[in-house]
Amino acid sequence: MNRIFNDDLKGKLADSGVIAVITIEDASQAVPLAKLLVDEGISAMELTLRTPAALDALEAITKEVPEMNAGVGTVLQPSQLDEIIKRKALFAVAPGCNTNVIDGALERKFPFGPGISTASEVEAAVEKGCRVLKLFPAEPLGGVSYLKSLNGPYGFLDLKYIPLGGLNAANMASWLERPEVLAIGGSWIAPVRMINNKDWRGIAANAREAVKIVKEVRG
User: Nearest Cα to 21, choosing from 33, 9, 12, 10?
Assistant: First the structure.
């Protein structure tokens, strides 16, 4: 899967530094939100498949905000891959390491980053060819020190991680400093409450703060 999660896509995610993790309950809010994030410097998002509006939101974003590198999260079944591919998603991730979904992504030659939290899950994903992994839940597992220890035996494989879970503006810099971190997942940037309230000013402020930290750490 390393050849499927290609260098161009990895470069785009790394350039953004932050992948905004978004849950949309009203598809009409998707495009304004995506445009706002791009304007503030966040060019990657993980749109979770947790609501009935998610697929319509994805389709609207990929059609109307092509500069947003739109991925999908909470992919739990191989059949979901067909729906998100049809709507032009660029990648997908999941909270867990479901080998059926990995196999489905390989069959479709679609970039998929399974979720891992243990060495056994890392090895299961690597055995299937994955080289981009989602670390979840990152902070409750033990934070940056946990990732450093977990990745130690596998450093020679050049694995890249997208940590998510408990990250925020106060701790994201320590994650971004790690060379094995491709980008971080940021669910605090645009939580459901702020989206539903159309608090675009607040979301923009969160996005600016995150982008500022990415630039300070990565240049």
Answer: 33
